[in-house]
Design goal:
CATH architecture of the largest domain in chain A: 2-Layer Sandwich
Number of helices of chain A: 9
GO biological process, one term (chains A, B): D-galactonate catabolic process
Oligomer: homodimer
Keywords (chains A, B): Kinase, Transferase
GO molecular function, one term (chains A, B): 2-dehydro-3-deoxygalactonokinase activity
Largest sheet of chain A: 6 strands, mixed
CATH superfamily of the largest domain in chain A: 2-keto-3-deoxy-galactonokinase, substrate binding domain
Protein name (chains A, B): 2-dehydro-3-deoxygalactonokinase
Strand content of chain A: 15-25%
InterPro entries (chains A, B): DGOK, DGOK_C, DGOK_N
Largest interface: A-B, 46 and 46 residues
């Protein structure tokens, strides 16, 4: 029987249709993320996006398992392998839907939902790998993996901070557009790494330089991005200093992290997150069936 | 002739009606701040709020003089006294309207509009005073005053950061209500002062503790406030270490700054900002007329 693998995040839903032998048959995505859905809307949303696929078994990771999601999947406490036994059933008439639990860390308090599946995909592609994984995003994650287990991780609000500051403070007048000036990014990154405590003052300077000397929007945006990623790297220093970092992500944001880490002489290996998440979902399916 | 003193900020407008001898006759305020007004709307807004007052001379400080305000008043570069000659005229049929210029600092780039008038009011009430002034707010300011001149200042985005994070990130689920738990504030303040670079990670911990251990909203709000004010104090350390600080502001926010500085054994003298701004406007009027 074919089946459906799903990555149901806060803002996006990705579906893959796979054969019984886990070969990719089709893929679809939509912006119907968990953030915009009431619990009763998950089932019809899934049926609509999967229309025409002959599959009634669904395995999903991500925010569909959050408290405000389709059904609440518990967190598995560290240390533990990224995937394990124990899936949560979600209600869907005539279908079998299973949610992958997230991971939790007691101290410092932290949680993840979805990234554990990408980490499992990374380990499936790199058996026996030990080291540090960084997953840039709205909530960037740094995770330490050892002997097949996630032993610690830390989440940074960096991506959401960028959006909140660029959209909802006086800096919105300064950072318009999508372009990032690389030199401004590099300079701000270096400033933030050397004096991370100056963040709130440096943020206002972006506005002041716009008023006093006409700082261009791409430079202002580069500065904001450099300050925030620099602050994250300053806090995450023990994770990357003298290490190789596996960067799991996609697009311009992950490229900025690679650039920032390269500037600290940190070697990185990059991988796209979607294929790794799919590989993790396939691993979870095999675990579920005792095939692993 | 009686006249009108105005403090036209981003979100609020305050008007005072004063006699020719600068005695207070009446006061009014509204939420028609500069942020919600087009340039042509300033004059009718003023006439409506001042209806019935027999005065046609208006002296205003604040964001009415911003580029997007009533008329652009230039910045005066540091070092300089908080008020000086050179006012900008704004168009108003049959009225005399004058805007007080803001102050600018070249390096680090910084600007203020309105706080210079409160600082002038503080100096009018404390002649010959030298020292550090902190003005908490959406854009907190720290200013060094010496021999009647503002010699340097620094703006922190702290208040706007609080609003943007509390309203537009995942923390909005955690920090509802208005209450601030004082113990949570104190603990977060101390954490932020000792390791300010951990800000972005500590912010996400507020959410994680809400999910994992049901952190109450007042504690989450106290934590967020303590982290952000602590980050500001960490960056502003050279301004307050071993000094007395004049705190100019109002309400619960200024009380939090007083509490935070007291925890660092920094003596503070507090003053309400509205009366000081009015005193500064009166000083500016006398300067304008050569009466000072």
């Amino acid at each position: 029987m074919s089946w459906i693998a799903a990555d149901w995040g806060t803002s996006r839903l990705r579906l893959w249709h796979l054969s019984a032998a886990d070969e990719l048959l089709d893929a679809r995505s939509s912006d119907e993320g968990m953030g915009g859905l009431a619990p009763a809307e998950f089932e019809p949303t899934l049926r609509r996006l999967a229309a025409g696929w002959e599959a009634t078994t669904v395995l999903t990771c991500g925010m569909a398992g959050a408290k405000q999601g389709w059904a609440e999947a518990p967190y598995r406490p560290l240390p533990c392998p990224p995937l394990g036994p124990g899936l949560t059933a979600a209600p869907a008439e005539g279908w079998t839907v299973r949610l992958i639990p997230g991971l939790s860390q007691a101290k410092p308090a932290d949680v993840m939902r979805g990234e554990e599946t990408a980490i499992a995909g990374w380990l499936a592609a790199n058996p026996g790998w030990d080291g540090v994984i960084c997953l840039p995003g709205s909530h960037s994650k740094w995770a330490e993996v050892s002997a097949g287990e996630v032993v610690s991780f830390r989440t940074f609000l960096t991506g959401e901070l960028f959006a909140a500051i660029a959209g909802h403070t006086v800096l919105r007048h300064s950072v318009g557009g999508d372009e990032i000036d690389a030199a401004a990014f590099d300079e701000a990154l270096s400033e933030a790494l050397s004096r991370p405590e100056q963040l709130a003052a440096r943020l206002f300077s972006i506005r002041a330089e716009g008023l006093l000397s006409g700082l261009p929007a791409a430079a202002a945006r580069g500065r904001l991005s450099g300050l925030l990623i620099g602050a994250e790297l300053a806090a995450a220093r023990p994770w990357w200093l003298g290490r190789e970092v596996a960067l799991i992500g996609a697009g311009p944001l992950t490229a900025l992290y690679a650039r920032a880490l390269a500037a600290q002489a940190v070697p990185t290996r990059s991988a796209e997150s979607d294929p790794l998440t799919l590989a993790g979902l396939v691993t979870a399916k095999r675990l579920m069936e005792g095939r692993s």
